[in-house]
Amino acid sequence: MLKGFFNVPKAVNEPVKSYAPGSPERATVAATYTKMWNSQVEVPLYIGNEEIKTGNTKNMSAPHDHQHIVGVYHQADRALVEKAITSALEARKKWAAMAWENRAGIFLKAAELLAGPYRAKINAATMIAQSKTIHQAEIDAACELIDFLRYNVEFMTKIYADQPASTSDMWNRVEYRPLEGFVYAITPFNFTAIAGNLPSSAALMGNVVVWKPAATQVYSANVIMQVFKEAGLPDGVINMVMGDSGMVSDVVLSSPHLAGVHFTGSTGVFNDIWKTIGNNISNYKTYPRIVGETGGKDFIIAHPSANPAQVAVGIARGAFEFQGQKCSAASRVYVPQSLWPAIQAKLEADLKSMKMGSPEDMGNFITAVISEASFDKLARYIDQAKNDSDAEIIMGGDYDKSKGYFIEPTVILTSNPKYSTMETELFGPVVTIYVYEDAKWSETLKLVDETSEYALTGAVFSQCRYAVEEATVALQNAAGNFYINDKPTGAVVGMQPFGGARGSGTNDKAGSSQNLLRWASVRTIKETFVTPEDYKYPFLG
Fold it and tell me: Buried b vs exposed e over 27-62: b needs ≥16 C-beta within 10 Å?
């Protein structure tokens, strides 16, 4: 932290409200949900100082009631994407030169707006268009986004305070400049916080941004832009464009002014972006920074010493909160034979008690998956498991999209540790369990490490510290976020920096100074106070 001359508020994690029955926050968000549900919103493109309505619109609906339209959003053509780039570059002239304290003040104000007057609105928007329960919306759209905004300011000041040594005759310093050009932020549907953080973290460091939110997240993305504008973000610093994904990326990645990509989404799309940048590399003014968090096939492994009830709850929460649509969600589980009967009994009882339906009913633990395409993919894998000889659906397995995209929490038991649902990312409320022989603990660790192309999150449950240590070492490359006796989800900003490697991304750790440093270009400045006037060194005599 820069001391003395500056006095930046120390970041603290936003407390999670309970929304318990009878609580005032429950009543407030319920009323906000109803009001937003019964009105329609028209989301424009935010380009420079304009809110552009093209007339080329797409409907926004609720996954848990897909016939109910909550609004429309406007789509850009190639010319408008070009305009967004031009607007960003024009805004850069002032934004990059602005004192960091003033940039910080904007995003600290945005955090307080979200913590106060916008809290119910951002939560209700996330409940409606992303089908999150109130708890999932609260820990994401409110608390995590607030935490990102607060902690990023603290991380920025720590970066700026990192200066080289100087001596009495020379002054050395480094300057953390914004990147030369603009940053392209591509955000997913599943976390409103990620949608807010990817463009704002780059902007905080003095960069300008062209932001393309996921089509299924535009509803809450619009609220984020409203918050940023009210917080005082200058026009053109973050430009939000929607439209055909391929077209938008084609225009953006062709620009010689592309300075970076901040991405969260599928591994395949990220690979295509990387390939396109490589093909265009000679066209750019600078080498673009490529930062991405992609897919996951996240695991839980239980040691024979584990507490069966804890393992079962880790599976239930890790696999089925937000319908398994967290990139960190548990989707493959390895349990020892000796514990399986107790784990199975507890997990089955827990699943039977889970209610499924609209997030408007705050007694529901499960709601709908995000889209028909997602629903259809999951249904195919469930049907396949019903027919395969090396797999068996032991819990759940039903689905219905007549009103909403509802898939029952489903547990597949397989005798094949390389069964398709042990390897393929599904992104839904489906978990596959493989039961191993207790004596094959070490072999199973090797199996966990070698089964998936991904390396995002994973968890070990054990009461034996030797086993914990063995797992921690054996799985060091299998998960960028590794959990001991806990579910593999729920990373908190400032506590568990998030990201994975292998096919899961560049592991640049959102929620840490490591990520922010990627959006700075460092210049070293050496100033000599008494400059030599003779070229001869002492060794010359």
Answer: ebbbebbeebbeeebebbbbbbeeeeeeeeeeebbb
Contact 231, 107 (CB under 8 A): yes
User: Residue 27 pLDDT > 50, yes or no?
Assistant: yes
According to the model, what pLDDT value does residue 202 have?
98
Task: Report the alpha-carbon distance of residue 266 to residue 454 in Å, rounded.
Answer: 11
Region 439-450: mean pLDDT is: 98
Contact 288, 262 (CB under 8 A): no
0.85 exceeded by the pTM? Answer: yes
Tokens 């979200």 belong to: 114
Q: Phi/psi zone of residue 414: left (φ > 0), alpha (ψ -120 to 50 degrees), beta?
A: beta
Q: What is the pLDDT of residue 216?
A: 98
pLDDT tens, residue by residue, 140-152: 999 999 999 999 9
Residue 324 has pLDDT above 60, yes or no: yes
CA distance 432 to 446: 18
Q: Are 186 and 215 in contact (CB under 8 A)?
A: no
Tokens of 471: 């797992």
Which residue type does 73 have?
Answer: Y
> So what's the pLDDT on residue 8?
79
Here the tokens at position 41 are 């919103």
Task: Say yes or no to pLDDT of 3 above 60.
Answer: no
Residue 314 C-beta-side C-alpha neighbours within 13 Å:
28
pLDDT of 140 reads 98
Helix runs in 401-464, H state only: 420-423, 441-451
Which SS3 state, helix, strand or coil, does residue 436 take? strand
Phi, psi of 407 (to 5 degrees): -125, 125
Catalytic residue list contains 327: yes
Strands 57-62 and 65-74: antiparallel
14, 154, 293, 360: the catalytic one is: 293
pLDDT of residue 6: 59
In this predicted model, what pLDDT tens digit does every residue of 161-185 receive, in sequence order?
Answer: 999 999 999 999 999 999 999 999 9
Contact residues for 412 (Cβ-Cβ < 8 A; gap 6+): 385, 391, 392, 393, 394, 419, 421, 430, 431, 432, 433
CA 175 vs. chain centroid, Å, equals 29
Rounded to the nearest integer, the mean pLDDT of the chain is 97
Question: Contact 378/399 with Cβ under 8 angstroms?
Answer: yes
Phi/psi for 530 (5° steps) reads: -120, 105
Name the DSSP class of 42. Answer: E
Interval 434-453 mean pLDDT: 98
Dist CA 130 CA 140 (whole Å): 11
Q: How far apart are CA 242 and CA 319, in angstroms?
A: 31
Choose the catalytic residue: 144, 154, 327, 408: 327
Q: Is 293 a catalytic residue?
A: yes
How many degrees, rounded to 5, is the angle at CA 54 between CA 257 and CA 247?
40
